[in-house]
Amino acid sequence: MRRQLVRLHRWFGVATALFLFVAGLTGAIIAWDHELDAALNPSFFKARTHAPALSGLELARRVEAADPRLQVTFLPLTAEPGHTLQMMVLPGTNPATKQPYPLDFNQIAVDPATGEIQGRREWGVASLARIHLIPFIYKLHYTLQLPFTGNVDTGTWLMGIVGTVWLFDSVIALVLSFPSFKAWRKSFAFRLKRGGYALTFDLHRSGGVWIWGLLTIIALTSISMNLSAPVVRPVVSLFSKLTPDPINNPELLRAPQPGDQVLSRERIVELAEQAGKAMNLSVPAGGVYYAQFLHAYGVGFYAPGNDHGDIGLGNPWMYWDAATGKPLGKTIPGKGTAGDIFMQVQFPLHSGRILGLGGRILISAMGVAVAMLSATGLLIWLKKLNARRRSAQNAGLARSPGGPAAQS
C-alpha cells in the first residue's frame, strides 16, 4: 500500500508543482495588491486636486457625459481621502454601427474633486508594464492568464483541478510523512548541519508537516474560489441548504423584456440605503455595479477603501433587478444556513483577511512556503529519477555481452 501511495504522491506532485509554484509566489504578492499597486503607480492612486470630493454617482455622470464611448459598470460611492476614485468601465454601443465602441482600457482613475480622468488601464492584461503589473499577477494567480475556450474559463477550471489534486495529495503526503510510530520525531526535524539533499528532503517533508493544516485550508479554499458554482456549491448543498442568490442561481433572474429601461444607479443606491437601514447594517453603501449579462445591480456595504473586507467574513452585498428594482437576494456575513456561512468564509480564509493584517502576513508567508515545497519536491524527484536511470544503466551494462555478469 505504501508503495502505491508513494507513486501517487510522486506523480501528483510532479503534475502540480509548476502550477503551485506560480500560485504560491503570486499569492504571496497579491496579499498586498493594493499597497504594491499604489506604490508602483502613484499617479493612478493619488488625487491631483486637494479639494472636497464629489460623490461617486456624480463623478460617474461626469465621466459618461465627457466620453460617451464608455459605460461605468462599477464604482465606489465615496473616494478614500486623498485618493482617486477607480471605476470599472465597458464600451458603450455605437448608435451608428450598433457595435461596441473600441476601448483599450476597462479601468479608470478619476480625480474625485473634478471628475478628470487621471489614468486608464486594462485590468488583468498580460503585461509587465508597471501600470499593469499587479493586476496581471492577480489574474495570473487564479487563471494563469489562460483564455476562455468557447464559454469555458480554462484557467479557472485548470487551477480548480490543480487545487483538488493538491488537496488529495496533501492527505497522502501526511500519511507518508509518518512511516512508523517510533520515528515520528524525524518528521518534524530539519537536519540543518547536513545541508544538501538531506536538508532539501527535510524542508519538503518536515516543512509540509509543520504547516499541513494551513496548506489544507488553502487547498480547499482554492477549490472553492475557482469551482464554486459547478462543484463546491452542489456538494455543500447536499449537507446544508444554500440561500439562492442571482450570481449562483440564474433562475432568480427575470429575462429582459422589450422596452425595458435600466434603472439609474441613483435609484438603486436609494433602494440599497433603505434596505441597509431596515437591516441595521453598521456600514454604508460603499459600491455599486451593474452586471449587464445578469440584467441586475449589486450594491456592497463597506467603508471607503474596504471593498475586500479588512477582517471577518467580508462585506454585505444585495442585488436588484435592473429594470424593476425587485430585490433578488443578499449575502450578509455571518447570516444564513451553515452552508451559507461555509461559502462566505472561503475568500476571507484564502486571502487571510479573516484575521486582518496578521492573516495577510500569514498568507503571504504561506505562499512562499508553497513555492518552496513545490521546488524541493521537484528537486527530490529529479535526484531519485537520476538515481533510477543510473541503476538501470548499470544493470544494463551488467547484462550486456562483455559486461561483469558475462565475465563471471
TrEMBL record:
It comes from the Bacteria. This is PepSY-associated TM helix domain-containing protein.
